[in-house]
Structures are given as C-alpha cells and as structure tokens.
C-alpha cells in the first residue's frame, strides 16, 4: 500500500498574531506624536500575549490528545467494524507543534506495520505497547487511522478525531479570551 500520510485525520489549532502588526503601527504612530513609551509598552504586552498563546496551544494540544484517546478507546472497534483494538492507534495520537509554537496538529500516527507489531507483542504476552510519536519515513507506511476515521471498503466510519476536535473547540473559544485577558492585565 502506498503511503497515505496526507489522508490522516488531524485536528488543528492555531493562534494568529497578525492583528498585533496593526497595533504595532499604532504604537509607532503614537511615538511619532509625542508618546515615546508606546512602542516599549506594545512590545512588553506583545511578548506576554505571545507567551500566553504558546501555553494555550500546548494545553489545547494536550486536551485534544486526551479527548481523542478517550473517544477512540470507548467507541472504536469492539466488533462493530472488525477492527481489533491493540492500543496502538490510541497511543499514536500525537501533537505536532509548529516551530513558533503557535500551531498544533493532533493526529494518529499508527501504521498498519505498528499494529501488526503490537498484535505480535500481545500474543507474546507484552502488556505495554510502545507509543508512536513520529510519522513513519517508509514510503510504504499505511496510516490506518484514516481508514478508521473515514471508513474503508466494508468497514464503516468510526470517527474519533472529528468528534474530539468538535468537543475541544467548543471549550477553547472562551478559554482563549480568558487567557488573553489574564496575560494582558
């Protein structure tokens, strides 16, 4: 099977700091009008807002991982679709953060090969399955979270990423507003 990484379901959260550029321009204009402390005050507040945003994104990623793992463990497989849970898919739900820390994508990174290894380990009596946290570099990697989420062939859809994302996002809007208020007080 060809690599299907582009089909892996993900839940993405990000903070756009672009509006701060407008405020930066206003601070510069105020400085030119005789309020020299405006740019310094802006930079101080900007640093606080950015730091709070990074923490917010880390927490959003953690909440999404927890919720997706919970839904996956409770509602996916269990003889409904023929999918036999090994814990590999649940353990592979991983946050991937952008370099600037202002974006997170949470996605299941388990491959069919990982699941087969887990099944073999379970047969041999292993109790703890290794957690997956990086995309496979193999060109043949088949990420089966896509087949579980969206269905494949005779297997029905068993979404776990979309419902978890919807549940988490419902909480995040008010949390972000509160986070910014606290950061800028």
Provide the descriptors you would attach to this structure in a database record:
mainly alpha, 52% helix, 185 residues
Provide structural commentary:
By secondary structure, the protein is mainly α. Helix content is 52%, strand content 8%. It has helices spanning 19-32, 38-75, 88-91, 112-123, 145-150, 161-183; strands at residues 11-14, 93-97, 103-108. Strands 1-3-2 form a three-stranded antiparallel β-sheet. A hairpin with a 5-residue loop joins β2 (93-97) and β3.
Q: What letter string, H or E per element, gives the SSE order?
A: EHHHEEHHH
Portion in strands: 5-15%
Low-confidence stretches: none
- Total beta-strand segments: 3
Query: Mean pLDDT score, rounded?
Result: 87
Largest sheet: 3 strands, antiparallel
Ends: how far apart? 54 Å
Given the C-alpha coordinates, what overall shape results? elongated
Helix content: 40-55%
Based on secondary structure, the structural category is: mainly alpha
Q: Strand order within the widest sheet?
A: 1-3-2
What is the number of helices? 6
Radius of gyration: 21 Å
